[in-house]
């Protein structure tokens, strides 16, 4: 058995004993069992599946995050997560919500970088005029 603690910034979603965890990482899909070595990976938007002590599978759509396995403890932290029982609906949620928001984040970061560059350029121009 492993003890899984799965959280988002505002709450702990799961804190229970599990026998198996599967998720999507930057280097592909993976599975962790209790006797596997310690592990750290960056998660990508995908489906986190874990099997509880009774053999029931629980499914979460997750956003970017981190997974750390240390001994018999596994910590998962992600920005957003949605629990569900229908894998098809959860996969759709990943594509619709998390990946679309990821694109919006990239557009916003680009806009902020442009504003910062314009600010610095104007600041330097003002300094040049003042000290000329």
Quick tags:
132 residues; alpha+beta; ATP Synthase, domain 1; 9-stranded mixed beta sheet; 1 helix; 46% strand
Q: What can you tell me about this protein's structure?
A:
By secondary structure, the chain is α+β, with helices and mostly antiparallel strands. It has one domain (2-130): ATP Synthase, domain 1. The protein is built from 1 helix and 9 strands; from the N terminus they run E-E-E-E-E-E-E-E-E-H. It has one helix at 87-130, and strands at 2-8, 11-25, 28-32, 39-43, 46-52, 57-62, 65-70, 73-78, 81-84. Strands 1, 2, 3, 4, 5, 6, 7, 8 and 9 form a 9-stranded mixed sheet that branches. The radius of gyration is 21 Å and the shape is elongated. The N and C termini lie far apart (72 Å). The relative contact order is 0.16.
Sequence-ordered SSE layout with sheet pairings:
Layout: E1 2-8, E2 11-25, E3 28-32, E4 39-43, E5 46-52, E6 57-62, E7 65-70, E8 73-78, E9 81-84, H1 87-130
Parallel strand pairs: 1-8
Antiparallel strand pairs: 1-2, 2-3, 2-5, 4-7, 5-6, 6-9, 7-8
